[in-house]
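Action item from last meeting closed. Structure (352 res):
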């Protein structure tokens, strides 16, 4: 039996010598604890450091609650963060990709889990990443309930890392939005994106950084900031705006415009026998998209299939509610546009 006088003698190669510093990891957890605790909702039980995050659902608020979950990453946008050596925004992207997805179903985000893996844990850099995740959770109104930081020597290039995130939300079963109530003649409201969000960066890097040989510090005509800053603009989180809308309006369907653009994402919420007609020019396209298309000589269909083209989230509403919905969005400070309508078809998007 061990006692107070027991001392362990470590012989041979240690885990630290193999590249994993447990003590540095523990210190990192201590330093981020105040950040994580600042996101806690009342339903969260305990703090960080346990084997699992605890979250108590207030069943008095729901008659038939349904949990909605999503997982995603940031993709090769991280390459831009490495080049810029700026790491306080990609965490926002990570949260946004998950919470915007579950929002499509009418779900309120409850909590978020993150996974950060790297070759060698660099504490200050990792804290910057967590700060972004915390900001994203606050913007979405959810708790950062837990996470994992994995040190994996010789697995990543020096200074690089990867991120994954897991969002969980809740919705009353009878209020689940699945697009089944969408009808011919309904209108499409597009909410402006902040730019590229977190999709298409493999093509962006190939065109701008490889073909054109731009650097992240270059200033390109048409952009107000250096290229790297434009490319690192965080994904918009639409949660608070949309949840407020759902309290007043009958939103029939929603789509988060991520990889695949409007072309691939909008049909996912359309019933059989219906399609979407999108009117090009009905919203402002951010200059970054025009630059990518011009410099890469990319076809218009390819652009609309790869990028959000300035629209990050789409709402499907009845014609009679469209004006009041737009007015409310304006009061919320959103840039919103009528970008098209629903017509008969085979669950596809047409552009005019």
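Sequence:
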């Amino acid at each position: 039996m061990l006692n107070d006088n027991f001392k362990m003698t470590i012989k041979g190669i240690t885990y630290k010598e193999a590249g994993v510093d447990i003590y540095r990891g523990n210190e990192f957890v201590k330093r981020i604890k105040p950040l994580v605790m600042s996101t806690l909702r009342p339903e969260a039980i305990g703090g960080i450091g346990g084997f699992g995050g605890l979250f108590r659902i207030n069943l008095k608020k729901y008659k038939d609650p349904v949990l909605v979950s999503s997982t995603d990453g940031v993709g090769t946008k991280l390459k831009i963060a490495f080049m810029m050596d700026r790491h306080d925004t990609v965490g926002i992207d990570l949260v946004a990709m998950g919470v915007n997805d579950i929002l499509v179903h009418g779900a309120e985000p409850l909590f978020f889990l993150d996974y950060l893996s790297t070759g060698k844990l660099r504490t200050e850099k990792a804290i910057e990443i967590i700060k972004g995740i915390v900001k994203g959770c606050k913007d979405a109104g959810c708790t950062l309930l837990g996470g994992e930081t994995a040190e994996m020597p010789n697995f990543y290039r020096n200074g690089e890392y990867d991120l994954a995130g897991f969002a969980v939300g809740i919705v009353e079963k009878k209020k689940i939005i699945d697009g089944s109530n969408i009808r011919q003649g309904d209108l499409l409201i597009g909410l402006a994106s902040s730019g590229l969000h977190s999709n298409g960066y493999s093509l962006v890097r190939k065109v701008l950084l490889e073909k054109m040989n731009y650097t992240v510090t270059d200033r390109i005509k048409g952009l107000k900031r250096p290229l790297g800053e434009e490319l690192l603009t965080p994904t918009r989180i639409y949660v608070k705006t949309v949840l407020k809308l759902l309290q007043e309006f009958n939103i029939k369907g929603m789509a988060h415009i991520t990889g695949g653009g409007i072309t691939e994402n909008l049909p996912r919420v359309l019933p059989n026998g219906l399609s979407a007609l999108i009117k090009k020019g009905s919203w402002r396209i951010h200059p970054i998209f025009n630059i990518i298309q011009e410099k890469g000589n990319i076809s218009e269909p390819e652009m609309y299939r790869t990028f959000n083209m300035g629209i990050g989230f789409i709402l499907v509403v009845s014609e009679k509610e469209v004006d009041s919905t737009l007015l409310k969005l304006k009061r919320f400070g959103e840039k919103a546009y009528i970008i098209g309508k629903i017509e008969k078809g085979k669950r596809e998007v047409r552009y005019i």
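Note appended to the action item: DSSP finds eleven helices and twelve strands in the chain.
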